Here is the input.
Amino acid sequence: MVKNKKILAAVAAIVVIVVVVAAVGLIGSGEAQDKELQFGYVTWDGEVASTNVLTLVLEEAGYDVKMVSTDAGPLYQGLSQGGLDFTTSAWLPVTHASYLERYSDKLDRAGVNLEGCKIGMAVPKYVYDAGVHTIADLRDHAAEFDSRIVGIEPGAGVVMATERAVDEYALDGFTVQTSSSGGMLAELKSAYAAEEWIAVTLWSPHWAFSEWDMAYLDDPEEVYGGAEVVETVARTGFAEDNPGAYAIISAFNWTQDDCQSVMADIFANDMDEKGAAQKWIDANRDKVDSWIAAGKAGADGENA
Here is the structure.
């Protein structure tokens, strides 16, 4: 009986060891992901494009991903508290500067995914050609603009910069009307069709510049800052918890033309978001494969 007990105990110990080794071997691999990755994003058109593309890439690598749309404030709060795992929506150094300052010690800046970006105030070219070249020029045409600038979501970096611009350029009587990216574009579309005067908050890359003839207003006081980049930011600890997925999101990087093509398919050509993202992935197989390879190397390195 004693001998049998020892044999059973030995077998049980072997089983435990095998299970533990198997579990360790699966940590970080997509096949073993039992926890859904929480991918936060703001519903700016470029971020809709990047989030859909990277979600499909992660799913192809074997991960279970949930896209979580939110405004900028809750996005950074969610990352700082661990409710969200990562985002590709961080516009820096100006647009999201206030959020980075507040939560920097709880965020992991994984890498730049898009360069040469810009935010600002824009008008249709027919307004620009009529003599409105700088933000200060709005003062002389308050009636034509109905004393308003059409923005996107309250609290968005480009909206906060526009509110500062109203003060900096003494646009007395002007208000910044906020709603959403979609609401701003709907107003722009309507005004453009009627050749009405309108000033909007806009950014590059954006499909609006290929859909309509638009021009940025000069900003000599640099209220909107200079060139921006878009970064991938993760919650602290995500790299240790999931090195394979972290390696993929860190490797993710594309061009303005890449982003613009997906945006145009979604918002100008009425293509399904996933369909547009998959179209880009299929056309850029080498780049996508390199991201997935980086993820496999990251997971293998951890497992080793």
